[in-house]
Amino acid sequence: MNKFSRLLTLLVLLSPLQVMSEDTQNQSENSNHAEQPQFGGPDSPQGQFEEAHRPKSPAFRFPILDSAFSDWKPFKAKLDDEYGLKFGGHYSTMYQTNGDDNGWGGNFRLNLQWTVIGKDTATPGYFSLLVDNRHALGRNGAPGTFGKFGQYGVTATQFGDFDGNFKIITMAWNQRIDKDTGYIIGSYDPNDYLSVQGYVNPQTTFSNVNILLETSQALPDTAWGIAAGHWFNDSVYVQGGVTDANGYGGDGNVFFEGGAEFFKWVHLGWSPTKGDRYYKNLHIAAWHTDEREDYGQEAVWGVSSAINWTFNDVFMPFAKVGFSEGDHDFFNNTATFGILYKVMSRSDFIGIATNYGRFANGHKNGLGGESQISSELFYNFQVSQHFAVTPSIQYIDNPLMSDVPENAETIFGVRARVDF
Questions:
Q1: Polar residues bias: where (predicted)?
Q2: Measured at the alpha carbon of residue 397, what is the angle toward residues 396 and 399, in degrees to the nearest 5?
């Protein structure tokens, strides 16, 4: 049986969906809302703690796997209670192939949060540290390399290669001023806050960066800066920030090496309640990047809008559109549409989405007027409390970085993750 057949068989075997009563799911989600970040998205350091602590109903029970964590959780809870120290992480691996090429990579992540002041109050101050070791496995490189399989973008987000090194993704001070207002200062990833929707977690949902992020933006990365947010009431909030326009996650946290060149952003959102921000949200965002002299990029700006809405605690359709003016590394016009379906009798969910991206006419990268469509289907199968497997299929129409004149690429993948 070839690789395509094995992966297709796995997708079919994992696809049956079941539904249970809304009451059970409501109780589960309500328990999550208390731990939701004040402003960050699901992939922010605080969002990852929320995901790790979320009650799960796996398809199977593996006493050996689950019992391995029986003493671990009380130990972590004791550290949090006595010292305000939270920590966790995961090891995940992803394999992708299009039949001619393949990539296999791993991601070892450590997540630390130390509440220094105001523990168990409405105004805590805490230090957050997120460290990744992203590495290739095998001889054909990591699947998260930009342009691999011909797509303009990344088909396996967070599965690049740091050459065996640990890199700091977040190192910042977080402060709540009151129950409605907070800020972060230090080295952080603006993509954890700007234009974020409730499905954006490359470790549990989609893997394609064009679907996960708003790729009409001159995508910022981990960099030194500051951001703040404020809830005007229980529904309307605003966020904004400034970071080093030249920073990225693999630069060793170099401090403004390119000088005073900034990425600035603002995000205005609405949800029925604060606790619904992941599940029911409408927002608009605007951004501007200064001219990056050493990089040879002109000043660019853009706007975007997005909505996601959960119906009956089962279906979450989402959509977003974006526009940018000026030449930068990503698209000038984008549109993304998709849906998530929760398997309510288990902690499984299935997702499907499509992204359209187009460069403006005359773009300096030689792709002016060209467009690309990226689609992905995945099934996140929660095998046990701490172990999940996610098979996926991606279809790239008109892959703009293909070495051969291909009209399309089909990419099969599987991701496995153990959290601790």
A1: 22-35
A2: 70
